[in-house]
Amino acid sequence: MNVYDSARSNSFDYKENVNAAYINYNKQYKSFMVQAGLRVEQTNIQGDSYGYSWNDQADDFVDYKGSFDRNYVDFFPSLAFTFNKNPMSQWGISASRRIDRPAYQDLNPFEFKLDDYSYMKGNINLKPQYTNSIGVTHSYKYKLNTKLNYSHVKDIFSFLIDTAEVTKSVMSKQNLATQDIVSFNVSYPFVKNISLRL
Questions:
Q1: CA angle 16-21-24, nearest 5°?
Q2: For residue 14, how many other CB atoms are within 10 A of its CB?
Q3: What φ, ψ does residue 104 adopt, rounded to 5°?
């Protein structure tokens, strides 16, 4: 028999609309190629959360509704140069900006009960995180490929535990800080002929 559990029941109506426009430029010159682009995004978000929350004064669950709206415009440029004067040794430089949006469930303000002492709650103020990257690549004889990349991430979201209440702890995602990432990759394909005889 199914039993309705007010502490774990919730309805979350979430609408997200992203309108985007793109422009690209690509040109081959004598000794290098350039590619530039710009993406513009206009985002509209609306969230409505319905459920029940415990009220100590009433000593019972009471109806609640949590709502939020958000509208913003973002610009995402990209630029890449490929220097191919010497086909056996090609250099490239690229830069770009990208966005990582939070999952809709991370925005739901309802407190999900995990156990008697732990809850998980969405954060309506959670913002997207943005990554700005720049990289340098080199290709030698079309085989040995190296890449050095630097990325700066802004408004990283990560779980934090709120222990302000004595009887429970609540986990939610927050925009914490920034992160800097440096990576270096080297690749070289090895091709080995394999013959099968039946």
A1: 140
A2: 14
A3: -60, -35
